[in-house]
Each structure stands twice: as structure tokens, then as C-alpha cells.
Amino acid sequence: MKEAVIAKGPKVQIIDSSIPTPGPDQVVTKVIFSGSNPKDWKRPEYAGDKPPINQGDDISGIVHAVGDNVSEFRPGDRVAAFHEMGAPGGSYAEYALSEKHTTFYLPKKTSFQEGAAIPLAAMTAALALFYRLALPKPDTPRLDSSPPLPLVIYGASSAVGSYAIQLAQRANIHPLICIAGRAQQHVRSLITPAKGDTIVDYRQDSEAVVEGIRNALPKGTKLEYAFDAVSEKGSYLNICKVLDPQTGKITLVLPGKKYEEIPDTIQQTLTRVGDVHAAYGDDLRDFGYIWFRYISRGLEEGWFKPQPQEVVPGGLEGVETGLRNLKEGRASAVKYVFEVGKTPGVSGA
Description:
The chain is α/β, with parallel strands linked by helices. It is built from nine helices and 15 strands. The protein has helices spanning 39-45, 112-115, 119-132, 159-170, 184-188, 206-216, 235-240, 285-301, 319-327, and strands at residues 2-7, 11-16, 26-34, 58-66, 78-82, 95-99, 103-105, 151-154, 176-180, 198-201, 225-228, 249-252, 267-270, 309-311, 335-339. Helix 3 (119-132) packs across helix 4 (159-170) and helix 3 (119-132) crosses helix 8.
């Protein structure tokens, strides 16, 4: 099969590889579309002398084979899946490998193209809100008569931010104070202004952003929760100027930073999506199992919507272009996805 491996640059090479064989608890999927994420170009930057690998983690396609312990899925099923980061069998290939607990059904109404925009980003949002911040969950939403529960979502137009908005809406968490830039129209389509939700433009100077967050708080209400899906360029500093210094909680997404500027009295956590594969010490495999199935239900019922997608031409040969666009900051409220069957040399391309 054809497979794309990513080196520093990003530079992408298409190689011939064997179709993966599933372990007892794994699923092999024929990839129709692969998604992409910023980590796909970032990780090779820090890989040193390690050989390039397939960095893709967002799988969308048709089940090809399953392991002996897999009873939920069978060949021919329409699925999406979150591949274990750094492991063999990534999504930039004709066939990809996933664990059964991070594989979920794609409803018929959700296309493979849409499915590729979901797994890693949606799970990051769920982990941030309901594990790290321990906010009320959508299965037990807050009553309309509940007092305001302000939540800042910084980077609201990104896939992670947009999924966080949708999950918070389902839990009836309001007001949502959404920090966004040029893609504000996309964010506006997801929020409920009648419940106090608002947008603050991060392209203003820091003082204006801080004032915008303050002004969005209901009178007499403290800001105690923030999800920083950007975690750089001063984002968390702006948030912390408004977060309650004693009870405030913030969760961030970029590893390898110490965030020393955040006051010690504010509870800070790092949201690591790899925890659903027990990759970093926290074993959140059950969380991943439950939430991917809940997201599948949300797709079926229509209250959870995929981030808009842009199909990069060329199949796997387009991966380098897509990752370069991510690195250069060209993506705005869009997920770059790749139709693997359009790769030169793939049967039917």
C-alpha cells in the first residue's frame, strides 16, 4: 500500500508499505479520507535523527479487518477512528490501524470527508471540558434556571474550539466567551447570544481582549473556567488577568511549556489527547470509549457537526501542502483532509 511519512520541513515522502495486521484489540480500516492536525508537522521538528513516520491520526473509512477481541465492528462498517499517536499504522496511508475503543461508527448522514475532521480534535475538546475542567456534562445538562457559568474558549474557530463550543452548548453552559479572529462568522453560527454567548476579537491589543472578556461576564459573576485551545502568543496571559485568582481553572494544549507566568493560585492543567491511549501516565481509555460513542450519537442526531473541511488535491501527495499551510497559519475555521484514493499509484486513482 501507499503511505506518507513526514520529516522536518515539513517534507513528505510516499513509500510502499505492507497493509497492517490488527492486534487482538485493534481495527484495520481502509482509509477513504484522512484528516490532519498541527502536531503532524510539529512532531517531526523535534524528532532529531529519528526516521520519518506516518504522523496521521484522523481515520475515516471502511473496516477492512478486526482483531480476535473485537466484537463491535466487522468488515464493511463505516467508521472513523483516532489512531494512537506515534504508533505504526497512521492515517496517511491506504490502510490504518486503531484501537477498538477509539473507533466509532459514522452515521450514514456523515460523509467520510466529514468523518476525517472529527477524531483527535473532538476528543481533545471533550477531555478539556469534562475531565480537566470537570464541567457539567451534556448527559446531565444544566437547568435553564441555573446561575450563569461563564466559560472562556480561546481559539474558538479552530476545530478543537468549535467542538468545545458544541459540547458546552449541549451541557447548557453559558455564557460562552469565545475568542476568535477572522473566522468569527463560523463561531457565530455555533453560539447562543440569547444566553449571553459572545465573541471577543483576539486581533485587538491585549488590553482590549482582557476588557472584552471582563465585559462579557454577567454582573457579579466570577470567571472560574477557561479552555485555551491556542496556548501561545499571550493567550493564557490574557485569560489569567480575568480568571478568579483563587478559584480559577485553566486547561492548556501545548506540551513542552511550563507556563510559569500563570499565578500559582490558578489551577492549571494540560489536556493531552494521548491520554485516551494511556500514553502519558493517565489511563483515560474508558473516557475515550464513552465519548467517541457519544459523539457518534451527536452526529446521528444532528447536534454535533463536523468542522468545515477543505480537500487538498492529490491524495497523499497533498499532505505536504496541507501541513505547510497549517504551519504557515493559513487554515481558518477549516480542516485539511485528503482523499487517499486520489493518490497517484493507488488503484483507481
